[in-house]
Amino acid sequence: MPAKKSFILDRLADGAGRISPKAAERLSKILAAFCWMVLRQRRKVVLANMHIAASGGLEFPLGIQASARLAFDHMAMTAVEFLRGQRYPWVDGVELAGREHIDAALAEGRGVFILCAHHGNWEVCGAALSRLVRPAHILVKPIGSPRVNQFVLEIRRLNGFRDIDRTRKGDGVRAILRGLAANEMVAFVLDQTRPGEPRLPFFGALAQTNTGLAALWRRYRAPIVPCWIERLSFGKHRLHFRPRLKIEEGLVLEKSATLIPKADIIEVTSLFNLEIESMIRQKPEQYFWMHRRWK
Rounded to whole angstroms, how far apart are CA atoms 145 and 63? Predict the structure, then answer.
């Protein structure tokens, strides 16, 4: 039996859905200003992360301080947009760019791995993949308490976001294989730490990096298409598909092998990090800098 959802969050979502888009945008600005002033530790994390990335070559055209403040604005808008998803479909404000890249990959009939990050409104990204292109199955972690997590899951599913259930061991892999067999998409959000994983370069500094996609790709050679979502304004987004990754060009892999050597898994994952860096460079203030990526 699923957990009951959070009553408080449910009421907040109901309230956010009853006000106009303009009022919701003003609410997000107030929320961002409040969080900037009150969440001092989180502000320090954002600034520290931006300084690390800047040392690794990431440019902040508006400067780090101004970009950090914009990052808070973006996260507040993301939160309010999420709550409004209980009443207004997220995908109503989404347009697509680079559609030809995902269409060409799906035309091969082997399913597609989607490489993405916590950039833009990633919740809208997950929903838009399924609602506007083809069903996309997404590996996610539980959020907060069971009641909070249930609230999040219900709004996600209401908007077409297809999370992969991992209640039992092996559920995740089975869901991934079913998705690929049906020529659907499987999305990996690869920019957060995972225990036991190697520390690989990310904007020049070592960060624990998930190697799961590289290992799965070596066994199940579906095309890998990177994508990222850009906020245009409150409630308006552009989902960008990039050209599929041509990993074989940079690596020597034995096609007959069932497993990729550990060194090659690390090399492939390092290429993924470079691709994510390239996406972040497009709109650095819209990245999720609040996570301790280099802890």
Answer: 37
> What is the C-alpha to C-alpha distance for residues 274 and 8, in angstroms, rounded to an integer?
40
Q: Which of 35-49, 62-76, 127-141, 154-168 has the lowest mean pLDDT?
A: 154-168
Structural domain count of the chain: 1
Asked if residues 282 and 230 have their Cβ atoms less than 8 Å apart, the reply is yes
In a domain, 291, yes or no: no
What pairs with residue 287 in β-bridges? Answer: 119
* pTM, entire model: 0.91
The CATH number of the domain holding residue 44 is 3.40.1130
What span, in angstroms and rounded, lies between the C-alpha atoms of 205 and 194? 16
**Domain for residue 295, yes or no?**
no
The DSSP code sequence of 92-116 is: GGEEEE-HHHHHHHHTTSS-EEEEE
- Flag whether pLDDT at 32 surpasses 50: yes
The two three-digit tokens of residue 11, written as one number: 């009421």
Residue among 217, 183, 188 at smallest CA distance from 108: 183
Q: d(Cα 117, Cα 221) in Å, to the nearest integer?
A: 21
78 is a domain residue: yes
Scanning 7-98, the segments in alpha helix (DSSP H) are 7-18, 21-38, 40-55, 64-84
Asked if the structure places residue 45 within a domain, the reply is yes
Q: What is the mean pLDDT of residues 41-55?
A: 98
In terms of residue numbers, what domain contains 199? 7-286
Span 217-231, pLDDT tens digits: 988 889 999 999 999
Q: Are 153 and 145 in contact (CB under 8 A)?
A: no
Q: How many helices (H) and strands (E) does the chain have?
A: 10, 9
